[in-house]
Specification:
The complex is a heterodimer of chains A (270) and B (302). With 270 residues, chain A is mainly beta. Chain A has helices at residues 31-35, 48-51, 226-236; strands spanning 3-8, 16-17, 52-55, 58-65, 71-72, 82-86, 98-104, 118-123, 143-149, 163-168, 184-187, 203-206, 218-223, 250-255, 263-267. Chain A has a 13-stranded mixed sheet with strand order 3-1-4-6-7-8-9-10-11-12-15-14-13. The N and C termini of chain A lie far apart (53 Å). Chain B is of the alpha+beta class. Classes of the chains: A mainly beta (270), B alpha+beta (302).
Chain lengths: 270, 302
């Protein structure tokens, strides 16, 4: 049985809240019941049927044919099953996920994977700012799971990351890994200024180097560590498929000593 | 005792009586095989019998670099104890004193199970606050700064409650050298069987024991019925043609693994023949009342 498919009829004229279109929340609903679910965010009423053609199928596997940067909160709270978007999404994609897989064929807006604690998000394009990060007032960002970004990430990727792994194949914007509490952020390209600022613990691997670390990071010298090899092997394996690092020795910086100082930033030796 | 004969070797119609144990497997790697073996030998030292060592442990096999998690040479170690708590204590102590201390070593879990005991998690505080937890790819590691660089260790390992300890074979030969030849042949064959170890020195034990003794507090004492120097003065199990006896003891992660090991060991001794090796093969038991696992030689004979 193929999955439940929503095919976009036209570009939406307002931002959409698509958090209801996740496995578990659509079980047992008829096509009519799904079609009348509200997805609008303005005073103008907008329901699923207004924007999407619905093809019923297995609700454990939901597919959105077509995307838009107005597709907000896609896959929010996902706990099991799969959501696939054949296009772009807006903000908070996969926020608070606890399991399952969310794949986005296009790019994602801000706060993708915000506060997620499990599952896997794959973004084939770019990710907006604060990838995995907390919303205002929240104490921690992502606390588990895996985010794969095949393009680049915006500013503050991995902000307040507490646990879990974020892999960015391209570049990262300014302040990547800011305020990290723990966890792992790997950037295949180059990181913008201020990487790791105020990180307490955690691992920041910047395979393409960084545009200047804060002077509160202290040079530990070259590090030939087994963990780099294990990460290289795990990330390049078929399950993840992102050979961002080789496992070769890298230069290690400890910090940010402006705070606890038990984090680490790896950059190329030369 | 009824018996059967294979290739001129008498095989007693008896059984080895074995016990349930808790077991786990770990992989130790190092920069080369020499240092992996050093760490493993140290870890598995003084681990021949739970009677006094607290656990039974040995190297199961040497691993090539493409078989280990970090691509370096390594060894697989099995360790067994009578309780999960006892196993955890022995594992932590030996890990901390023998593998953590060994240059270039790293340690990984090598047994999947829902029941887990601490591996690196048990010794991480050695790092005095500088330990680093890393979770990715479904694995959890601890990294501990050490003077050489960094010790990497997986956090936890699985425990099986299906482990079996005390599978055994006794080789009765005309002389000590023939008994040795039989035991060595069995050891060589059994070392190819997965998921088993032979915890005694070189896989062989010369001082097989019986339960208890005449002295108060003795958990075990010499198996006088099989001591050739006591023929005639004790209730000996040895005929006049037997001059020496050696035993092998087998621990395995499963009943089937121990049975396989006994089967190939028995075959190796039978193939060696009575001129070079044993005249008779038997097994140790306690009348079948103590251990739930009975390995009947007649079922395992080639």
């Amino acid at each position: 049985m193929s999955g439940l498919t929503f095919t976009l009829k036209a570009e939406p004229n307002q931002r959409l809240d698509l958090s209801s279109l996740v496995p578990g929340r659509l079980d047992g609903l008829s096509e009519m019941a799904i079609a009348v679910l509200p997805i609008g965010t303005t005073k103008e009423l907008l329901v699923v049927g207004d924007l999407f053609d619905i093809a019923l199928g297995d609700t454990a596997s939901i597919r959105l044919e077509g995307g838009s940067e107005r597709f907000d909160r896609v896959g929010e709270g996902l706990s099991a099953g799969a959501v696939h978007v054949e296009g772009d999404v807006g903000f908070r994609a996969g926020r608070a996920m606890t399991g399952g897989t969310l794949t986005i064929a296009g790019s994602a807006g801000p706060h993708a994977g915000s506060g997620m604690s499990g599952g896997t998000i794959t973004i084939a394009g770019d990710a907006g700012e604060r990838l995995g990060g907390p919303l205002a007032g929240e104490m921690a960002g992502m606390s588990g799971g895996l985010i794969r970004v095949l393009g680049s990430a915006g500013p503050r990727a991995g902000d307040k990351l507490r646990r879990g792994t974020i892999l960015v194949a391209g570049d990262a914007g300014e302040h990547a890994g800011s305020r990290m509490i723990a966890g792992t952020l790997v950037v295949g390209g180059r990181a913008g200024p201020g990487a790791g600022r105020l990180m307490k613990r955690g691992t920041l691997v910047l395979a393409g180097g960084a545009d200047g670390l804060s002077p509160t990071f202290l040079d530990n010298g070259p590090a030939d560590l087994l963990i780099l090899g294990l990460m290289a092997k795990a990330f390049s394996g078929s399950a993840i498929g992102m050979p961002l690092i080789t496992g070769a020795p890298m230069r290690r910086y400890g910090g940010d000593t402006a705070v606890l100082g038990k984090g680490e930033v790896f950059v190329p030796l030369a | 005792m009824p018996e059967l004969t294979r290739n001129g070797i008498v095989i007693d119609d008896t059984f080895a009586e074995a016990f349930p144990m808790r077991g786990t497997a770990i992989v130790v790697t190092a920069v080369n095989e020499h240092w992996a073996m050093e760490a493993a030998r140290s870890f598995t030292g003084f681990a021949t019998s739970v009677i006094a060592c607290g656990c039974e442990a040995a190297i199961a096999r040497v691993l090539s670099p493409n078989e280990t998690p970090d691509g370096r040479p390594g060894v697989r170690i099995l360790i067994f104890a009578m309780s999960t708590d006892g196993l955890a204590k022995q594992l932590a102590t030996r890990l901390g004193q023998c593998i953590l201390t060994s240059p270039s070593s790293a340690c990984y879990a090598d047994l999947d199970s829902d029941t887990k005991i601490d591996l690196g998690s048990a010794i991480r505080y050695f790092a005095d606050g500088w330990q680093i937890s890393k979770k990715f790819g479904g694995k959890h590691y601890w990294r501990m700064p050490v003077m050489e660089g960094e010790f990497l260790c997986e956090a936890r390992t699985g425990v099986t409650k299906e482990a079996v300890g005390g599978g055994n074979l006794l080789f009765l030969a005309g002389s000590a050298s023939q008994a040795m030849a039989a035991a060595e042949a069995a050891v060589r064959a059994i070392r190819k069987v997965p998921d088993v170890i032979l915890p005694f020195p070189g896989g062989v034990v010369r001082s097989g024991s019986k339960v208890g003794g005449k002295y108060k507090g003795m958990m075990a004492s010499t198996n006088d019925a099989f001591c050739p120097t006591l023929k005639g003065v004790t209730n000996s199990a040895l005929g006049p043609d037997i001059g020496s006896v050696l035993e092998i003891v087998i621990d395995g992660l499963t009943y089937a693994a121990v049975a396989d090991a006994m089967r190939v060991g028995l075959k190796a001794v039978v193939d060696l023949g009575p001129q070079e090796g044993a005249l008779r093969v038997t097994a140790g038991n306690y009348g079948g009342k103590l251990g739930p696992h009975h390995f009947h030689l007649k079922d395992l004979a080639p």
